[in-house]
Amino acid sequence: MGRSLLVHEVEVSGGRLSIRPGAELRALLTADPWVEYPAEVDLPSVPRSVLLQTATYLLAPVAWAHGLVTIVSCADTSVVTALPLLHAEMRRMFPALVWPGDVTVADPMPPAPLPHPTGVTGLMFSGGGQHLECSMPP
User: Fold this and answer.
1) pLDDT in tens, 70-118
2) What's the burial of 21, exposed, middle or buried (CB within 10 Å: 0-12/13-18/19+)?
3) Which domain holds residue 75?
4) Which of 51, 57, 96, 104 lies at 20 to 30 Å from 11 by C-alpha?
5) Closest CA to 36 of 127, 115, 114
């Protein structure tokens, strides 16, 4: 069995990041997830690889919990490092679930250059402003 896409596409409209999951994962969701950012965040200027991080970190636990074998294309190399750490943390936080799925990054990209090299501006994803509805395995 081949790997399915974790994220089919990410789209920006104003301050909203809409996430279109891959078909296999999308079948588990009641709606496509989205994340809202405040108006002062210039979301259209955020590189796609960074937007993909938000989508990946939001959807990966659903894929793991359901035993899906998925792939993320063109995420940056920080995702390659972070995914196993996130997977291990999910297992630690929720030991009653098996977390049998797998998420692999294909063709990783170098991290996107910072728009403000002085480090004055940043975009963070806390998990508090997203909308995700799905069913969990029994």
Assistant:
1) 999 988 898 999 999 999 999 999 999 999 999 999 999 898 776 555 5
2) buried
3) 4-112
4) 104
5) 127
* Overall average pLDDT of the 43-66 stretch: 91
Euclidean distance between CA atoms 67 and 23, whole angstroms: 15
Pull the structure tokens for residue 109: 């990209």
34 pLDDT higher than 70: yes
Apex 21 CA angle, 88 and 11, nearest 5: 115
In a domain, 20, yes or no: yes
Number of compact structural domains in the chain: 1
Q: What six digits make up the tokens of 99?
A: 């977390």
Does residue 121 form part of some domain? no
Nearest-angstrom CA–CA distance, 65 and 138? 10
Residue 104 forms beta bridges with which residues?
Answer: 71
Whether residue 125 lies inside any domain: the answer is: no
Evaluate whether residue 126 is within a structural domain.
Answer: no
